[in-house]
Amino acid sequence: MNGDYRRRRLSNPFLLSQRLCNSLATSVIANMAGCARELLRASSGAIGVTALAVTILSGCATEGTQLTPTSGSQAGRAQFLAVANIISNELEKPYREYEIGTLGTDRHPSEHHQPFFEDAYGVLALCIAYDKTHIARYLDSSKEWADQMIAYQQNMNPAGAYYMNYYRKPGQSHGDWYVADANSIAIGVLAVGKRTQDPKYLDSVLAYQQMIQRFVASDGGVSDGLWGNYTAEWWASTATYGSLQLALYDYTADPVYLQGAAKALNWINKTGINNFAYPNLEQDGPAIMFYTGWFLAEARLAGLPVDTTIISQWFLQNQKSLNPHSKMNYFNETYMAGMPAIQFLLGQEDHADSELVYVASILPSGGLNAETWSFITWTAASQAAQIVYGTETLTTPPPSTF
């Protein structure tokens, strides 16, 4: 999206931004605030806000920690653990409501006050870090977060909804509430349930799943919940809904969820990426390619018929590791740094690795000066994808390994 559009709303970015030092410390910097999915809604006349920004403290992997050999360099795996520690540090803080429009340095460094859907991707990465290292802290931090999501859920209206940490709060019956954002939270909660086998996490997600059926159309499209007066199906809520259905299918093996994912896929195919709106492909190609691409890549792993030609062509045209003449500004279009995760899911390992190298190469190495929590959570999710999917010998994993 262009700069004027970007400033009108809050969005949801994903930046791979660390450089491994000899001490295995993380060197991360992000040049500008990313936006949450609700920024994407600006074209519909929804609320205009400035971009999100916070300061993130550096972290380092536990000395001697080893990951199960899967893929990628040893440096990449150590880097992943360093970022996992940053996420654990943040999620272990007391929670405060996210202050939409906050820009600059972190006003409450001792508290966690970020959008919960961004947290969810950090939780997915922590679950992978736990799978590979069995370090209890990674799962414990994830459980604390998921338990808080369930606690908030108990008082939400509509019943079963997840609190996003902004707009409609527990106990309120007014204000916007977004399906696209809450879908990501549900996926994070389910990932914790998969590791713990505690039924309360699945019960929570099933309550949410039942509630959101009111927003699912017969053709598979999903509207974005309580988004002002806009009630039409939307690409982001449909794509993240599809991803949630695949996660539920992987967890329960109930074919009804695979059918739900297939219907969401049918809506996306019928509508066509080139016809998406609020924003459209020209206004914000990176956001559309990221959310839609993630779902399509997972659907492909689940055995659904998927055509990723448009997405792959868009990568070739816009990723600087593939097209050095691309005019894409990665610090304005921070979703670009999340594309390697999709490429790993699609089996495009060489392209994904090259893009990760490029993203790291454009970042300063003089320490941490990150301004967006979402940068670090999306970084970790991409690194987790490299660990899980980036191997020539790994057999095709289930769609919701995350």
**What is the structural class?**
mainly alpha
Q: What does the overall shape look like? A: globular
Distance between the ends:
28 Å
Low-confidence stretches: 1-72, 364-370, 392-398
Mean pLDDT metric: 78
Helix content: 40-55%
Say how many strands there are. 2
Question: How many structural domains does the protein architecture include?
Answer: 1
What is the rounded Rg? 19 Å
CATH-assigned fold name: Glycosyltransferase
Biggest pleated-sheet summary: 2 strands, antiparallel
Number of helices: 13
Strands side by side in the biggest sheet: 1-2
Spell out the helices and strands N to C.
HEEHHHHHHHHHHHH
Residues in β-strands, percent = under 5%
Structure description:
The protein is an all-alpha fold and 402 residues long. It has a single domain (3-389), classed as Alpha/alpha barrel (Glycosyltransferase), CATH 1.50.10. Helix content is 49%, strand content 1%. The chain is built from 13 helices and 2 strands, in the order H-E-E-H-H-H-H-H-H-H-H-H-H-H-H. Strands 1-2 form a two-stranded antiparallel sheet. The radius of gyration is 19 Å and the shape is globular. The chain starts with a helix and ends in a 13-residue tail after the last helix. The model is unreliable at 1-72, 364-370 and 392-398 (pLDDT under 50).
